[in-house]
Structure formats: structure tokens, C-alpha cells
Write a structure and sequence with these properties.
Oligomer: homotetramer
CATH class of chain A: Mainly Beta
Largest interface: A-B, 30 and 37 residues
Radius of gyration of chain A: 15 Å
Number of helices of chain A: 0
Number of strands of chain A: 8
Chain lengths: 124, 124, 124, 124
């Protein structure tokens, strides 16, 4: 497998919609950092959350196993980080092996859902 | 024609919506890897699919002819790869000539459709 | 003004929705290549369109004046290029000065519109 | 904290929807430039707005404090810049320290909202 990716990533438009429409769990409003670790080593991936009017939260870390996909719900990061809904934030993601990160928001505040996605900004 | 593009690409937020609304084939929920081969040579393009809890599937390959567009439905990759719906996955795309890849999802689970797109992550 | 941008760009997921809902011109389904020329020189910008089953169309060219924005509707390129609706295509955009290109689709086939955007793929 | 980001960014598809549906302030149509300043220094961030048929507006500047997120509503930039609604524009963003910029549009002209996002184009 190739060593594809980078060790630093940024999501700049973080905002978790505060409401959802309907009860289907797959249609609950949320934001995700979708990660590929295509390397032969497990990745130790840390998340630091930045706010407009408060000190950063984190870093907290998760493990993404070798050759695995992991879609991290940004409202469900490990304690003690807790991203509030309806609040502007940014995310710095750091890994000890190369990974790729894509940012997606599903907004189902209204009856029909809205989607947005972008490859996150790759640093070093 | 210029040799524009890269030989490795990653889509990190793969998730095929499990349902659609209506019977218009152009409004069926799907994900696509949209590819341009602007070079003078045919491209041998391989897809490897990564999951959260299982070994990767693939690689499987397709040919994208010289100076042609090809929008690959990710739910219809060549056998034996079969990406299940409603399942988190990532995609590694490799080509023997430079190509460009853009990732798009059409989600028509609800009455009105939602769209998202991003240029995939370019590797080497 | 800075010389920001590149001289080659690719949009890989071209597909113009074949229908629209309502009569508001600003809600007609369309795709655009949105261009910034921040340089001190006018830009000669050419478009080449690639298809799945046919030879490329173009190049055709437009001028984007110095220090101006230009949002090019991809269904209204200069003759003889004519991109058909409901057809997969890709676009190669070339300029003699650095520009920046962003790709956006508005899909109003259903009563509520859907939007998607991405910075195009920058080449040389 | 890492010096992640760039000092120049471009948003090429600026267009602020002229109407909204409903009275919830969080569902008003708008465009934002979402910024992370992860550095140890405050960032002086300037915005220059480009139009199709008029001279650029700006630059005007804001401060994004060290280690803070700032989601700038592009319809509410400092005077004398005033971006009109329903008008094509592009944005050049310049900073004296590295930042990351993500562009997002919420369009609620119709009953259900539409969303689009992309990491902006990074220059030097």
C-alpha cells in the first residue's frame, strides 16, 4: 500500500446543526471527519478544537488501524472534548502516519437534508 | 494535450445512501468518482476499497481511454468488488497515467435531493 | 495585486441538470466555472470539453479582464462548443496568466434546489 | 501549535442569495469565509472583493486572535466594503501569519436549505 496522505489536516468550517428532522438515525444532523489510513501501521490521530471566544479543547486521540477507514463524528470525540452544537469551531487533526481527511456536514434541520463536503486542508 | 493530473487519488467519505425517492434513474442516490484522462494514452485505473471493520476489497481495474471523461458509479465497480450501501468506506484510486478525480454524492433519500462534491485528494 | 493562481485547471464532474423547477432565472439548473483574474493583465482563458464517447470539443476562448471576476455558465460557452444537458463531461481550462477556478452546480430539478462546489484541480 | 496554513487564499464563487425562507437567524442565506489561526500570533487578515463590471473593493482588515476560529460573514465585512446580494464576486484573503480558509454558502431561498463548501484556494 502507498504512504498516501499527510500528517496535519485542518477543517475550518465546523458548525454542528442543533436540530434534526425525523427519527431515522442516518438522517440526524452531524459533522464528520472521514479518515483513510492506507499505511501498514496503525495511526494515532489527535483532534484539537478551536473556538471564537474560548481556549482550544484537546488534543484527544483515537487510533485508526492500518488499512482501515474511520468516519469520526465530530460531536462524539473522546472525553473530555465536547463540541457544542450551533457553535463556530475549527479542527486541527494530527497523525503519526500519513492519512487523508474529508469533512462532511449533514444538515437535516429542515424536512429535506442538505449536504456539504470538502477534502480538508493538508499541512505537512 | 497537457499531462495534467496525478497517479494516486483518495476519496475519504464514501457512503452510498440506501434509499432513493422516485423512479427517475437520474435521481437515484449514488456516489461517483468522476475521472478525466486528458493524456494521449489510455489509463489503467484501479480502485481499492477500505472499510472500518474488514479487509480492503480490490484492487479492480477499468480502462479510461485517452482524451475521455469517465464518471464511475462507485456502487457498480467491476466484480468481485461490491460496495454495500449505508456503509462507511474510503477509496484509493491509482492510474498508470496522470488523471484527475472528483467525488460526488447524490442523496435522494428524501423528496428533494442533496448534492456534495470535492476534488479528491491527489497523491504522487 | 499578487500573481495568485495557476494556468491549468480541471473540472472532472461536469453534468448539467436537464430540468429546472420554477421560472426564477436565478434558480435555473446550471453549472459554472467561477474565475478570478487578480493579475494586472487580461487573461485569455480557453475551455476544452471532454466526453465519454466522443472527441473533445474546443478549445474556445474568452477574455477575463485584469482584476475582475467572471462566472462562466458552462452551458453557454462560445460557439462552436455546446455542452449538452444530462451528459457526463469534464473541462480543461487553460489561461495565459494565473487564475483561480471554482466549480459549482445548482440543481433545481426538484422543488428545492441542491448546491455543490469545489475549487477545481490546479495543474501547472 | 503548528504554523499550519498559508498567507493568501482565494474564493472564486462568491454570490450571496438575495432572499431567505423563514425567520430563524441560523437559516438566513449567507456566505462565510471560515478561518483558523492556529499560530501563536494574532493574524491581520485583509479582504479584497473583485467584481465583473467594477473596480475591486478593499482591502479591509480584521484581526483573528491567536489560536482562535473566526467565521466571517461575507455580507458583513468592515466598512467601506459592502458586498451586494445576487452579484457575482470573488475574494482575495491575505494574512500576515499562516491561516486556513474554508468557503461555505447557505442558500435558503426555497423552503429547504442548500449547502455548499470547499477549502479555498491556497496561494503562497
Amino acid at each position: 500500500m502507498p504512504q498516501i496522505g499527510r500528517r496535519q489536516w485542518v477543517i475550518a468550517d465546523g458548525w454542528i446543526p442543533p436540530r434534526s428532522t425525523g427519527s431515522d438515525p442516518a438522517l440526524i444532523s452531524h459533522e464528520a471527519a472521514c479518515i483513510l489510513n492506507a499505511t501498514e501501521a496503525d495511526a494515532n490521530v489527535t483532534f484539537t478544537i478551536f473556538f471564537t471566544d474560548a481556549e482550544p479543547q484537546g488534543p484527544v486521540s483515537i487510533t485508526v488501524p492500518s488499512r482501515r477507514a474511520w468516519h469520526q463524528n465530530l460531536g462524539e470525540l473522546p472525553a473530555p472534548v465536547k463540541v457544542p452544537v450551533a457553535t463556530d469551531y475549527c479542527v486541527l487533526i494530527e497523525s503519526d502516519v500519513p492519512i487523508v481527511v474529508q469533512h462532511t456536514r449533514l444538515d437535516s434541520r429542515q424536512a429535506e437534508n442538505a449536504l456539504m463536503t470538502t477534502i480538508a486542508y493538508p499541512g505537512e
